[in-house]
Amino acid sequence: MRKLSARLSARLSARLSAGRRRRVAGLVVVASALLLTGGTYAVLSPATAQDDLAADAALVDRGRELFLVGCSSCHGKNAEGIMTSDGTQYGPSLVGVGAAAVDFQVGTGRMPLAQPGVQAPKKDALYTPEETRALAAYVASLGPGPAIPEETKYDLEEVDEEGIVRGGQFFLTNCTACHNFAGAGGALPEGKYAPSLSGVAPKAMYEAMLTGPQQMPVFSDQVITPEDKENVIAYVKSLEEEPSYGGFALGSYGPVAEGMFAWLLGIGALVGFAVWIGANSVRSKKGTKA
Amino acid sequence: MSERRDNEMAVPGNDDATLDPHSAQSGDPIDNPGLPAHRPRPTDIDRAAEKRAERQVAGMFGLATLCALLFGVAYFTLDIGEDPDTFLGLGASNLALGLALGLALLLIGVGAVQWARKLMSDHEIVEMRHPVASSEEDRTATLAALRQGTDDSGIARRPLIRNSLLGAVAALGIPAVLPLRDLGPLPGTALEETVWKPGMRVVNDVSGLAIKPAQVQVGQLVNAEPAVFFARDEEGEPLLEGPALQAAKVKAAVILVKIEPEQINALPARADWGVEGILCYSKICTHVGCPISLYEQQTRHVLCPCHQSTFDLADNAKVLFGPAARPLPQLPIGLDDQGYLVATSGFQEPVGPSFWERGDR
Predict the structure, then answer these.
(1) Is the pLDDT of residue B276 over 50?
(2) Do A52-142 and A151-241 agree at the fold level?
C-alpha cells in the first residue's frame, strides 16, 4: 500500500514538474491537497466519530433501562438534562457527551452522585463493567461524542524515556496548575478540588483529558494528540514510582507544607532545647542541711 | 560552705567592703532580698553521681565520634545518582548522611550542655550596674588628644588642603555610582510590546501544532504560544532561543478557551475578537505576572495560583476576586487562508503587571 502510494506520488510529481506551466497543474495540486487534508482529518478525528457501541441495539436498550432507573431523576428521561427553578442545572444534558464521559464518570464511581454537592467525589463503582458499557452505549446513541479509547492508546507499551520527558513537558504546561507539579491534586475555589492523580488508572486519565469532567477543561485529541496523552500518563505513572530521594515528600505540596513542618517541628524543637538549657538544674535537698 | 568565700564580691565605690549576694541588703527604698540560699547539685556532694555524669558526657562525645565515622561509611557505601539505594522509599544516602551528621552535632551539643549543668563549677555571680558614660578624666583626655591632632595637622590653617581632600573624597562617589548604569538599559517600549503580530498563528505549547477551530471543543483549554517560538531560520536553527526566547515567552504566552457563543458577553469593540466562541487571553496575571492556567470550564473562571485573582473569561476576563487591578488583556484572533487560528493584531494594551509608565491604560 505504502509502496503503491509512493510510486503514484513519484509519478504524479514527475508529471506535474514536466507540465508545471500548464493551467491544469495548479488545479490538480489544490484538489489533491484538499482530498489529502479532508481524508486525514476524517481518519484522525475519532473524538467526533460515532463509535460502534451505539450500533449495538440490544446494548443500547439495556442501557436505556438502566438509565431510566438510575440516572433519569437528575438527567431527565431522555438525558436532555433538568434545570432548577433558579435556572441552574440540576443534571446536565448528556446528549453528545459520548461514551468516554459515561465510562469515566460511572466507571470511577463519580456517578451516580450520592448527594448533590460542589463536586462529585471518586468512590467505589456502583455499576458492573457490563452495566457501565450498556449505559455508555445508550448515551453514545443520543449524539456523537468521544468514544471510549482503545486500550492501545493508554497501555504505555510504546512509551520510552524520551516520551516520558515529553509527557512531563505537557504535564507541566497543562496539568500542574490544578493537579500540582507532582500530581498530588489541589484546591479550587468554593470547596471544589482537583483530585490527586496517584493511583488513577491510565484509562481514567485518558478519558478525563478527552472529556473534561466537572471543572476540568477538555484536551481534545487534535490539540493534545493521543501519543502525547499517552506520554503524559506515562509521566504521571513514572512519578508514582519515583522514590522521594530528598526525604519525606510531605504530600508533595511544596514549600507550604515543608515550611509548616520546619517552623512548627524544627523551630519548636529548638525552642524546647533552649528552655531545657535555661531551666534550673536539679538541686540536692541534702545540700541545704550540710 | 567555707570554700565559697570567693563568691563574695566587691561593693562599688568601697574597696574595703564585700557583699554577700545571698544576704539581704538594706538601705535602698525597697530592700534587696538577696539571692536564694545556694543549694548544691547532687554531683557536687555525691562522688558516685559525679562519676556517672562524667561518664554520661564522655559517652555522648564518644557517640558523636561514632556518628561522624558512620557519616564517612555511608558516604562511601551508599549509591546515589541514576540508580540510588533507597530505604523505606527515601534516598538511603541522604537519610544516612543527614541522620549521622545531625546526631553527631546534637550529641556534642547535648554533651556540652550536660557538662555545664552537672559538672562545671556552680556558683552564683552578681554583676552590678555601673554608669554608662566614661569617667570625666577619660573624656577630657580624649578631647585634648583630638584638639592636638587638629592643631598638629593644621587642617584649619590650610584650607587648600582641606578643600582638595573634600573634593577627592566626593569624587569617589563617581566610581561608586557609575557601575549602576550596568543594571540598564532602560526597558523602553519592551514592556508594552509582545512578539504577537497580525497573521501570526496561535500554536499549542510544547508541540507547536497549529490549531483549527474545529479541533477545539466547548470547555477546552489550550495553553498556546505564538508560532514564532517554533519557527526556524534557513539553517534550521530556532529563530528565538535561550534568554531571548524566555524574555519573549514571559510576555507572549496565551490561553485559548472555547465557550458557548451565547454565554459570551463581549464588549461591543471586541465582538469579532473570537472565532466560533474561541477566545484568546494573555496567560500572564495582571497582578504580579504569574502564569495562569487554572481554568474551571463550567464557571469559565480562571484563577491565579499566586494570590487567587479570579477572572471571568466569558465576560472580557473581568476581575471577580483578588488583588489584580485590571482584566487579562485579550488577543484578537481570526483565521488565516488555511483555516488556522491566527492573531489579527498584537495585544492592544501592555500585558502583565502594572508599571509606572503604564498609566491608566
Answers:
(1) yes
(2) yes
Burial class (CB in 10 A: 0-12, 13-18, 19+), A88: exposed
Shortest distance, CA B301 to any CA of chain A (angstroms):
10
Distance of CA B34 to the CA centre of its chain: 49
Q: Is B300 on the interface with A (CB under 8 A)?
A: no
Q: How far is B206 from chain A (nearest CA, A)?
A: 6
A49 vs B: CB within 8 A: no
A259-287: pLDDT as tens digits: 999 999 999 999 999 998 888 777 877 64
* Cβ proximity of B195 and B282 under 8 Å: no
Which among B205, B305, B310 is the nearest to A177, CB-wise? B305
Could you tell me the residue ranges of all domains in chain B?
Answer: 42-118, 202-358
Which of B40, B222, B308 lies nearest to residue A287, judging by beta carbons? Answer: B40
Residue A46 has pLDDT above 80, yes or no: no
Q: Do B308 and B259 touch, CB atoms closer than 8 A?
A: no
What is the dotted CATH code of the domain comprising B202-358? 2.102.10.10
Contacts of A288 in chain B (CB under 8 A): 37, 39
Phi and psi based region of residue B342 (left: phi greater than 0; alpha: psi -120 to 50; beta: remaining): beta
pLDDT band at B23 (very low <50, low <70, confident <90, very high): low
Supply the ipTM of this predicted assembly. 0.74
User: Is B15 in contact with B4 (CB distance < 8 Å)?
Assistant: no
For B111, nearest residue in chain A (alpha carbons):
A277
Q: Are A97 and A200 in contact (CB under 8 A)?
A: no
Taking the Cβ of residue B293 and every Cβ of chain A, the question of whether any pair is shorter than 8 Å is answered with yes
Measured CA to CA, the distance from residue B60 to residue A281 in angstroms comes to 19
Amino acid at B338: Q
* Closest to A284 measured CA to CA, from B46, B42, B44: B42
- Do A288 and B39 make contact, defined as CB atoms within 8 angstroms? yes
How high is the pLDDT of residue B2?
A: 39
* Burial class of residue B323, CB neighbours in 10 A (0-12, 13-18, 19+): middle
Is A191 an interface residue toward B (CB < 8 Å)? Answer: no
Condensed to tens digits (0 to 9), the pLDDT of residues A124-150 reads 999 999 999 999 999 999 988 899 999
**Domain A151-241 fold:** Cytochrome Bc1 Complex; Chain D, domain 2 (1.10.760)
Judging contacts by C-beta atoms under 8 Å, the chain B residues touching residue A277 are 113, 117
Instruction: Report whether the peptide linkage leading into residue B268 is cis, meaning its omega lies within 30 degrees of zero.
Output: no
**Cis, bond preceding B185 (omega within 30 deg of 0):** yes
**B203 grid coordinates:** 500554536
Q: Using CA coordinates, name the residue in chain B closest to A92.
A: B298
pLDDT of residue B190: 87
Q: What proportion of chain A, given as a percentage, has pLDDT over 70?
A: 82
Does the beta-carbon distance from A277 to B113 stay under 8 Å? yes
Any B CB within 8 A of A88 CB: no
Q: Which residues of A touch B263 (CB under 8 A)?
A: none
Q: Is CATH 1.10.3720.10 correct for A52-142? A: no
pLDDT of B89 above 60:
yes
